[in-house]
Amino acid sequence: MIRIRSGRAKSATAAGALLAGLLGGAVAGAPSATAAAAASPCSYGAYLYNKVTNPTSYKYVPYATGDGANCWLDWGMSNTAVRALQKNLNSCYGYRLATDGDFGDLTESALVTVQKKVGVRADGDYGPNTRDAMVWANYSVETGARISCN
Question: What is the pTM (predicted TM-score) of this model?
Fold first, then answer.
């Protein structure tokens, strides 16, 4: 059974079905215009260091090759970028999500709650607006322990 949850996935499915019908099945599953215009899907978790202002800490954030941190995640995705998001939701917002890298119902629910708290559209999709509004954990380069969230 296929389960479609996000607006982005619904748009992609609708666009793919429409294109497939119009082109006799030649093109299906094309990305939605919203997804393509906003950014690439986040593909891995990246360790970001700021050697100038804080050389002793790093942040672990969702990232995409070519687009950097300007990427998106939504329900059904599974990778280390989702793990980075889950780790931050746990560390800075007090959740106890499994950091398994699977964007399922619990991760989506936690993200919606955080989106409401930080004042962005509460749709359960992670993207640049959510990233910029959230606080992110800073971890010690030396010990790996969380230092702060900002």
Answer: 0.75
